[in-house]
């Protein structure tokens, strides 16, 4: 007699909070300062041989009239760039391994991909069947409708909604019954196809 694995599972939709290999800082905005507002540690001190400690972290020259403070360093506004796309970061960014990334590049590099559509997951995801999904991509194996609230019934390793789950169970039961009828007919020495 065949047995099938039938389980009910429920997963809620969660915010995507998977840390990259090194835990990043929360999304941050670079701060822009005029020279008179720069941190006092960056200003020239009396008796210093260096005339200006306000040096860009990229080019090591004076930041001049405007500076960006990010990742505990000063930058020319156009020199604070994403480590992925190499474009200047003007809005929010996130760091990983002491490198800055724009939101898009950070998600592409560190966020998981959806098991249904293979797109990068950004806002929320569903963790089901040991994989990550967009809530719209986690669908019933029979009718392909999204599974509401991440609730599903597992039959032979595939997710089903409640209605399709009962249809699949009935289909499996009928197949088992047919198999038993054929086996019984063979035991009795009858033609197995005549049993139907």
UniProtKB/TrEMBL annotation:
Transmembrane segments: none annotated. It holds the Pfam family LIM. Keywords: LIM domain, Metal-binding, Zinc. CDD domains: LIM_DA1. The gene is WBGene00110872. Signal peptide: none annotated. SMART domains: LIM. It comes from the Eukaryota. This is LIM domain containing protein. The keyword Hydrolase does not apply. Gene3D superfamilies: Cysteine Rich Protein. GO terms for molecular function: metal ion binding.
């Amino acid at each position: 007699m065949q047995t099938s694995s039938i389980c009910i599972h429920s997963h809620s939709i969660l915010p995507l909070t998977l840390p990259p290999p090194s835990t990043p800082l929360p999304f941050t905005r670079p701060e822009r300062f005029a020279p008179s507002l720069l941190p006092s540690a960056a200003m020239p001190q009396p008796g210093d041989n260096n005339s200006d400690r306000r040096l860009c972290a990229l080019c090591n020259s004076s930041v001049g009239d405007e500076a960006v403070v990010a990742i505990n360093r000063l930058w020319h506004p156009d020199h604070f760039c994403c480590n992925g796309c190499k474009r200047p970061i003007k809005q929010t960014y996130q760091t990983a391994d002491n490198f800055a990334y724009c939101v898009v590049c950070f998600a592409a590099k560190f966020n998981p991909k959806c098991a249904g559509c293979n797109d990068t997951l950004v806002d929320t995801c569903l963790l089901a069947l040991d994989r990550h999904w967009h809530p719209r991509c986690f669908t019933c194996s029979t009718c392909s409708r999204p599974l509401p609230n991440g609730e599903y019934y597992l039959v032979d390793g595939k997710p089903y909604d409640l209605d399709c789950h009962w249809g699949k169970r009935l289909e499996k039961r009928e197949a088992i019954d047919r198999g038993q009828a054929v086996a019984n007919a063979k035991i009795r020495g009858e033609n197995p196809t005549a049993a139907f």
